[in-house]
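Continued from yesterday's entry.
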Amino acid sequence: MTGISETTQSLLDRLRGRDHELVGETGRSMLLLHGEVRPLSVLLFHGLSASPTQFVRFAHELHAHGHNVIVPRLPRHGHRDRLSEALALLTADQLRGFALESVQIAQGLGERVVVGGFSLGGLLTTWLAQRVPVERAVAIAPFFGISWVPNRFMSSAAHMLLRLPNRFAWWDPIAREKQLPMHGYPRYATHALAQSYLLAREVLHDAQNGIAAKHLIFVTNSREAAVNNKAVRRLETVMRVRDTDRIDHVVLEGVPISHDIIEPLRHPEIAQRVFPTLLDLLEGA
C-alpha cells in the first residue's frame, strides 16, 4: 500500500480545522485511518441535525475490517450548544461543496470508494452518485421530500419557507430539548429543510441523465415515518431507464414505524436489527 499523499493530508487537515471551538467533542468529524491508502475507503454522511456520532458503530466496524473511514461533520452541525441557531444558515451550495470535498478526501484514502448516508446524508450520497464514479453508493432512507406532503407541492413549499423568516421546530414537541441523542440538535430549521429540498429537486431533475457510480443502492423502510418513499421509487424508475443494472432498492420489511433506523440511542431495537444488513450493503457483501 502507498502512503497518503500531501494533497489528501492537506484536505484532512482542513477537515479537522473545520471543527472550531463551538463544536462539541461528540460532534466532530470522525477519521478512522490506517495511515496508508487502503483497497477501500468509506465515506459516511449523517442526517439533518445529527452528527458523525450517528455512524460511530458503522465507522469502527468498517475500520476494524481494514478500511479507511471518514464521517465528516455536515456544515452548521455538531455544535456543543444543542439549541444553536447555526443550522438556519445552511445552504444547498454549502452542501454541494462539502460533498465534493469529502469525496475527494475519500478518493485519496482508498483505491475504491464507497459512499453511504442517512436521510439528508442519503440525499448527498445520491447527488454524488450522479456525478462521481465511486464504487458503490448506499442511500439509507434518503430525503427527497416529506412523507405527508405530495412531491408536486414540495418545491412551492420550499420556496415559501425561504420567503418567510426561519423558524425552529422541535423534532419531539414533548421531549423538546431532552430528546436523545445528546450529540444532535433537538430542533430543525425550516430554512435548512427548504435548502435540503432544493438539492433534492436537483437530483430529481437530473435523474434521466444517468449515474456515474458503478452501483447505487436505495434502502427504505416499508413503514417510513418521515421521508417520502414514493419520491424514492419515482427517482429509481427514471434512473433505471439508463442504468437498470446499476440500481438496486432494498426495502426493509417488518421494521417498526420509524425514520431514524440507525441511531442506537433513540431506537436501539431497530438499529440492532438493521445494522448487519446495512453493513453488508456498504461492504458489498
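--- second protein ---
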Amino acid sequence: MSGENLDLSSGSSDPPRENRGVAGRPYLGIHFACCDVYARVYINRDQTGYEGCCPKCLRKVRFRIGPHGTDSRIFTAY
C-alpha cells in the first residue's frame, strides 16, 4: 500500500553464524555435483554431524562437527 514501509533489516551487519530451517533445525547448503542439484542437509539428532542425501540419486553424505568448526555454510559434495 502507498505510504507503508516494510523494514527487513536486522539491525546488525554481521551474517548469521548458523542457518536454521523452518523448524529451527540447523542445516548446511550442499551442492551435489553428482546430479548438479542443491539441497539442505540437516543436523542429526545427536548433534554430532549433518546427514542427508542427494535428492536425485540418493547418494549419502555426512559432515562431522569438529571442535573448532567452520564459518562456511555451503559445500560441494563430489
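The beta strands are 27-32, 37-43, 49-53, 60-64, 74-77. Residues 27-77 form one domain. Will compare against the first tomorrow.
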